[in-house]
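Whether sequence alone determines local backbone shape is best considered at the level of individual chains. Part of our work consisted of pairing the sequence of a single chain with a tokenised description of its backbone. This step matters because it turns folding into a mapping between discrete strings. For completeness, the protein is quoted in full, as a sequence line and a line of structure tokens:

_____
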Amino acid sequence: MKLGMSSAAYYGDMETEDAAACLAELPLDTCEIFLETYSEYTVEFARIVREKLGKLPCASVHPKGTQFEADLFGKSPRQRREAMDVFRNVCRAAQVLGASYYIFHGPGVVRGRLHPNQIHAGKETVRELWETARENNVELLWENVSWRTLQNAEDVDIVLEEYPYVRFVLDTKQAHQSGADLMDMARHMGSHLAHVHVLGWNQDGKLALPGMDCVPWQDFGSALEEIGFDGSVILEPYGGMCRNVNNVLESLETLRRTVVK
């Protein structure tokens, strides 16, 4: 396994290229770049970020999917076409960064619950997205998100039945916020698990950095080993949690000791 961190850790505190420079100074094996807005979904901006990263590899790219991903499944052909143009630009930027993965939230609804087998034009669109990413040497990975389509182990099973070629990102905090069992999620994703986002929580449910939380990371690391996971484990804190670099270093050390062995 490789240990990394997302530039989203500095969202709101600094711009993406400056966050990349900060990541380059940390004891990381890899990283994830969170692209925040349309002007960043370009190969030109990706070259700037790639330079700021120096020798640090980039494993994955995570766009601000709320800006366009729902429109990929819209009922209007023009809506879908323009959203696909944005998606294609993100994939091209990912290729410049050397990223292997595009982190995909998938569709959702404003109210209620949209299950994976209820997606409008789902099979055709997901296949097109997956193939478009592959054309740019990037793989689309579907992430569990508490407020989107993929939320729990049952959803994982539905996605695998409907889209057997798709692989996953397991996000620990999103599993917690969905009320899903973390170890169960890992087992259901199994060999289709390609990438992991980690952030913990305390006894009150408030999000916290690993090492300052109550998550049994040793057990989680063992669960990943049991399914043969050998990808990147990306620390993905929310904005403001990484202003104290010593806390970040302590958290990374916790993950190296318990998960990334």
